[in-house]
Amino acid sequence: GPGSEFELPLPEGWEEARDFDGKVYYIDHRNRTTSWIDPRDRYTKPLTFADCISDELPLGWEEAYDPQVGDYFIDHNTKTTQIEDPRVQWRREQEHMLKDYLVVAQEALSAQKEIYQVKQQRLELAQQEYQQLH
Predict the structure, then answer these.
(1) Rounded mean pLDDT of 48-59?
(2) Cα separation of 123 and 31, whole Å?
């Protein structure tokens, strides 16, 4: 990226170009396709939100600004845009999954506890009966 002395060259057959707004895009001459995603990103960027460190965005994601909406996010992988920060969204989903898991685990534990209590009561009854017999 900017400021790094070591620049990965573009893969063979690729060219950097700019659209009428001055935004950089990439031309793949071999496949006659264009992309907003730098082909070098797949080697330098995290592939998923789980792989991101601190405030990184994964491959294909971009933060943009619009005077009408302010900051927004582009997912070039799915060609969609959203206002909500996907990093915040991802963390919330992780927390929900964890909470759901903890709830399920807690319910399973409660069920085990009830089974244990029932067995304990049966054992005590059996001991009382035994003591009455002898």
Answers:
(1) 93
(2) 75
Distance CA 48, CA 50 (A): 5
CA-wise closest residue to 75 among 54, 48, 53, 96? 48
How sure is the predictor about 122, in pLDDT bands with cuts at 50, 70 and 90?
Answer: very high
The pair of structure tokens assigned to 14 is: 């690729």
Residue listed under structure tokens 């003591």: 131
Burial class (CB in 10 A: 0-12, 13-18, 19+), 61: buried
Q: State whether residue 41 is helix, strand or coil.
A: helix
Query: 72: which strand partners?
Result: 64
8 Å CB contact between 84 and 73? yes
The answer to whether the beta carbons of residues 20 and 13 sit under 8 Å apart is no
Residue 91 to residue 34: CA distance in whole angstroms = 32
